[in-house]
Write a structure and sequence with these properties.
CATH architecture: Alpha-Beta Complex
Strand order of the largest sheet: 3-2-1-4-11
Helix content: 25-40%
Strand content: 15-25%
Shape: globular
CATH class: Alpha Beta
Structural class: alpha/beta
Order of helices and strands: HEHEEHEEHEEEEEEHHHEEH
Number of domains: 1
Length: about 260
């Protein structure tokens, strides 16, 4: 029975995949133009997710509004070139020499001084029409970060037009938000150096979500594909030992810093 459910789910994701690709052949009217160039920074770690990283990269290359795509591999035991075996002038592949947390993505992308930034977790697939939809909202409302899913109180929310407490899975920000992120890291580290050291591995999403002049917003983009490893123990980040406790510790100091602003 489990095997049948898995096959049906795979067939459903395959159908959605091709529908989304076909949508790209008939682009809708958009406020996005040649002045709105996006730098994408996608971190990855698990070898089990390299297949979906490769697929996402090929999709990103179909987007005219994307200026560069940086894939930052944070696992020294993996070579990203072995998975992404194609080249493009917009594609930058980086194998980090040391093991890094997901939050190191912001250090990597900061050196390119981008105006608009997307970061997509390595367990989902987003398509050109969905990315353009979020970029439109970022252009119209650059004062806050934008995304497609997030946490509100204790609930996980996606595919809705609403504010959330923090974003998950996809982050659309500006250079100003990135600047504010590093300022938050600095202020938290000043208050508690040990907590500051935890941010890269456990809580960069909490900080980046709080870099605007209000709550971050998520948007209704339709169904997006999640990899089968999205909740797999030992692969999904939230299944790591200590994740929940360390995130709470980061959040408490972050709240103290934000309350003073």
């Amino acid at each position: 029975m489990y095997r049948i459910k898995l096959i049906i789910k795979e067939m459903m994701w395959t159908l959605i995949y091709w529908i989304r690709l076909l949508e790209g052949l008939f682009p809708q009217k958009s406020i996005v133009n040649s002045d709105h160039k996006v730098t994408v920074i996608n971190p990855t770690f698990s070898p089990e997710r390299l297949k979906i990283v490769k697929r996402q990269t090929k999709i990103l290359l179909k987007c005219a509004f994307i200026e560069r795509i940086i894939i930052s591999n944070h696992n020294p035991q993996v070579r990203i070139e072995e998975a992404i075996n194609f080249v493009d002038d917009r594609l930058i592949l980086i194998d980090q020499a040391d093991k890094r947390g997901a939050g190191y993505r912001w250090v990597v992308v900061n050196s390119y001084q981008p105006k608009f930034i997307f970061s997509i977790d390595d367990d989902i697939l987003l398509f050109p029409s969905q990315l353009a939809r979020v970029l439109e909202e970022l252009i119209k409302h650059p004062e806050v970060p934008h995304g497609i899913a997030g946490g509100y109180r204790s609930d996980y929310i996606r595919n809705r037009e609403t504010e959330v407490d923090h974003l998950t899975q996809f982050y659309a920000i500006t250079d100003k938000h990135l600047e504010n992120y590093f300022e938050l890291v600095k202020e938290i580290s000043f208050r508690d150096e040990k907590i500051g050291e935890l941010i890269e591995l456990w809580g960069d999403d909490l900080l980046i979500s709080n870099t605007g002049n209000g709550l971050p917003r998520i948007h209704k983009i339709g169904v997006f594909i999640q990899d089968r490893t999205a909740a797999k123990p030992g692969v999904a980040h939230f299944t790591y030992n200590g994740c929940g406790n360390n995130r709470i510790r980061i959040f408490m100091v972050l709240k103290e810093v934000l309350d003073l602003k």
